[in-house]
Each structure stands twice: as structure tokens, then as C-alpha cells.
Amino acid sequence: ALSCHPGIRETVVLACEEEGETRLAAYVVPDGSPLGAETLRAFLRERLPEPMVPSWFVALDALPRTPNGKLDRRAMPLPGGERPDLEAPFVEPGTDLERTIAEVWREVLRLDRVGLYDNFFDLGGNSLTIAQVRVHLYHRLAQDLPLVELFRFPTVGALASYLDRSGPQEAPSFAAVEQRVDKAKVALERQRRAAKARKAG
After folding, report:
1. 3-state DSSP call for residue 58?
2. Closest CA to 42 of 12, 104, 86
3. pLDDT tens for residues 6-31?
4. What is the pTM of this model?
5. What DSSP state is assigned to residue 77?
6. Alpha-carbon distances, residue 111 vs 28, 60, 77, 169 (angstroms)
């Protein structure tokens, strides 16, 4: 799909595994002017489902080759690290809440910095990494965020504003959940015993 872009001369996409998670990295040799990650990501989203859109886009002058002309995968630079070139200008998060959200995004997406108006998905996020963000925010803020809200507010600023408006939410009690499960098991066992008793009678 990337090869169909008129501004790309050569490209290869590799699966990179990190901490048990596999993410896609696209290595691109532009045919002329450099192409931003946001442009390429938008191009692919019109043609591919979201899980197939690479998390990282790495621009190269040429793809590394072995002496016999094959792709040298070992010579590929490691993806991640630098914030991609986005249309939104970089604005430093200002409040403690904004900085906490940005820090979580940096950790999950392996970026050096995240701006106030950066879109999580334009930074390389996807449905899997946004679930990780939810877990990290739960531990940092003690708030149980519905996953749908993270999709609705995909920038640091928008998410911080939403959290400010909604206020602290009570985190789910895992002990209470376990109690409900135990009660359900007991009730199910009673039903089984009653059914056996009816059959025996």
C-alpha cells in the first residue's frame, strides 16, 4: 500500500517486537521531497484497517543492502525516539495533569516528547497502545477512564480538559469484583445441586 504513494521510491515494513508486543515500522525512501509521518499515516488509513497502519515511519536515503543485493534487516535503524513531523506545532504541556498524560504517551509510544495538541494516533498510537495508556493513567491518576473517551479526546489538551470537567472517578474495586464472582459461583453450585436433587427425586 505504501508503494502506491507517488512520493515514495522504495519502502519496506518490518514487524518489531518490544516487551512481548509486535508493532509495525515502515522504512521509506522518498522520491523527492521528504514525506511526513502524518501524511503517510493518513494515506494508509484510506486503504488499510487501523491495526495495519505502522506505528513508526523512518525516512532513509536508501534501504541498506547486503553485498549480494538483499535487504539488510540488521542494518535498519531502530524505530521510535523522535516525535514525528506533524501539522500541529509543538506546544509544551503546561499543567501537572497535561504533563502526566504527555509522560504516559511518551512511555507507551517511545517518543522523546509529546505536545499539547499532538494527536495520539498521528504519533503512532493504535487500539492496542491506547489500551496501555488507559492502564498507565489508572495507576497514575487513580481514575478508571472508559476506553471510548480516550478515542473521543485524542490529544493531551483535549483529554486533560475532559478529566478536569468530569472530575475524579472512583476506581473499580477489584476486591468487590472478586466477591461478586465468588457469590456467582456459590449460586451456580446451589443451582447444580438443586438440579441433581430434582433428577434424583
Report:
1. strand
2. 86
3. 999 999 999 887 666 677 889 999 98
4. 0.59
5. P
6. 19, 19, 15, 29
